[in-house]
Amino acid sequence: MATEFAHSMRAAELEQALSKLPPSGKLLELGAGDGWQAYALQQRGFDVTAIDVKAVRHGAVQHFPVSLYDGRTLPFPDGSFDAIYSSNVLEHVIDFEQIQSELARVLRPGGVAVHCVPSAVWRTWTTLGHPLYAARLAWRLKNASVNHTNRSVLSPSTKKLLVNMTPLGLLRMGLISPRHGEHGNLISEHWLFRRRSWVKRFEETGWGVDSVTPAHLFYTGNELLGLRMATYFRRGLASMLGSSTVIYSLHPCS
């Protein structure tokens, strides 16, 4: 479930990505989640179709209608869209080659695909910040228990995982960040998220890369400090440490 912090970061990234998209037209958002960005794109004049492989968690706010698909075949005719957009989604795609082929198929001649993806900077600082995140989470759980609050700080699946985990497993989870995407592992993701690696994957799946643009925003997957750190300060950190996400503008090569 997307948090207020995630929405804030996505809004800043979307502002950077808009210059890569056409001013209007039919747009497909891949991996739309709760539809928050799809709604923002609709407000900017796009005719938006939003899809994802699973629905949001029960009780979460759905900001825009999102259709479900099987994660392999896009349920649209050839040449259905003027543009494609995804935000922090492609690293979670299991069959990367298949989806890239499908995206090229449903894109009209002259159309553009714009993808915002995590960088090696994001992976490195998320790894380094994980122990602090784990300690913060443990503190929140302790306070919830002491105060007998019913407000959940974890999803049901995460609660089940923690209950069944051994003490050694809990220690490992607290010290070592899990992998983020569907490919590789914690170590190899530092390589897979490099710009050169993303460009290679796009080119190997039939895309030409028109531009590679940092989103000029620094944050980690742990949401440390969250909204207490202003966006302008995060932009300043990005100029020193590097951008946590990078925006790729692509066109099909055939």
Q: Which geometry do the CA atoms define? A: globular
Mean pLDDT: 88
SSE pattern, N- to C-terminal: HEHEEEHEHHHHHEHE
- Gyration radius (Cα, Å) is 19 Å
Structure summary, number of beta strands: 7
From the N-terminal CA to the C-terminal CA, the straight-line distance is 37 Å
What portion of the residues fall into strands of 2 or more residues?
A: 15-25%
- Structure classification: alpha/beta
Helix tally equals 9
Q: Mind summarizing the main beta sheet?
A: 7 strands, mixed
Helix content: 40-55%
- Order of strands, main sheet, comes to 3-2-1-4-5-7-6
* Low-confidence regions: none
Salient structural properties:
alpha/beta, globular, 254 residues, single chain, 7-stranded mixed β-sheet
Topology readout:
Blueprint: H1 4-17, E1 25-30, H2 36-43, E2 46-52, E3 67-68, E4 81-87, H3 96-106, E5 107-118, H4 120-146, H5 156-163, H6 167-175, H7 186-192, H8 195-204, E6 207-214, H9 231-241, E7 245-252
Parallel strand pairs: 1-2, 1-4, 2-3, 4-5
Antiparallel strand pairs: 5-7, 6-7
Helix pairs in contact: 4-7
